[in-house]
Amino acid sequence: VAVVKLKPEIVSQTISNQTKEGIEVMLVDEYGVVIYSPEEDKVFHSLGPIPSTILKTITEKKRYGNIKIEALGYSAVQDRLNNYQEPSSVSIRDEYDGEDEVLSFSQVGSLPFYIVSEMKISQASQFATNTALTLAVFVLTAALMAAIIISILVSRFLKPLSKLQEITKAIIQGDLNQKVSIHTGDELEDFANTLN
Fold first, then answer.
1. In the prediction, which pLDDT does 56 show?
2. What percent of the chain is helix, strand and coil (3-state, nearest 5)?
3. Which run of H or E residues covers position 106?
4. What residues form DSSP beta bridges with 22?
5. What is the mean pLDDT of the chain?
6. What is the pLDDT, as a whole number, of residue 146?
7. Distance of CA 76 to the CA centre of its chain
8. Residue 21 — φ and ψ, nearest 5°?
9. Cα–Cα distance between 100 and 93 in angstroms, integer?
10. How far apart are CA 82 and CA 90, in angstroms?
C-alpha cells in the first residue's frame, strides 16, 4: 500500500486552475464527505445524510478525527453517489444557500474520490443561451457566406450564357457579323467558337 499525502494548497490550486468563474468545485470521498471546498464551512460535511452504519465506520476509524459529520442538504447527490455508475447531474434547491442549482459529479479515475461541481441554474441557463446564440451567429454567418459564394458562382456561370443569348438573338435577326469571345474552358467556349 502506497500512501501519498498532498498539501491542501496543491489540491486547491489544481482544482481552481481547472474551474470557470461561477462554478464551485468540491472534492468528496467515497462516503460523500467534502474533503475540499473553496467554502471552508463545507469541508468535513457530507453531501447528504450518511447511513448510520457508514457513519459508525467513519467514527470507529477516526477518519476525520473527532469532527462531527453533518449533512449539507444535497440528498439527491448523496443518493446518486451511493449508487454511482457514471457521471451525472442533479438539479436541486440548495438549502445551504437558498439557490436553485445544478450539481454534477464524476469519479476521479478509479479512486474513491469524486469531483462535485455546483453551478446556479441561472448561470447554467445563461451559459446555454450564450452557446445557442454563438452557434446561431455561426450558422447564419455560414449561410450568408454560402449564399454569397453561390451568387458569385451562378453569376460567373450565367454571364457567358447571357452573352451567347445576345449573340444568338442578333444572328436570328440577321446580323451575321457577331463575334463571341467566351473563355470558360468548357462546352460553352466550344459552342461560342462554333457560332463564330
1. 84
2. 45, 20, 35
3. strand 99-107
4. none
5. 82
6. 92
7. 24
8. -60, 140
9. 4
10. 14
Give the mean model confidence (pLDDT) for residues 98-127. 84
| Cell numbers linked to 85 | 455508475
pLDDT digits (tens, 9 = 90+) for 20-64: 677 888 889 888 999 888 888 888 899 888 888 888 888 877 777
pLDDT in tens, 58-85: 887 777 777 888 888 888 888 888 888 8
Contact 103, 117 (CB under 8 A): yes
Report how far residue 80's alpha carbon sits from residue 51's, in angstroms, rounded to the nearest whole number. Answer: 14
Residues 6 or more apart whose CB falls under 8 angstroms from that of 43 comprise 34, 35, 36, 37
**Count of CB atoms within 10 A of residue 40's CB?**
8
Chain position carrying cell 443518493: 79
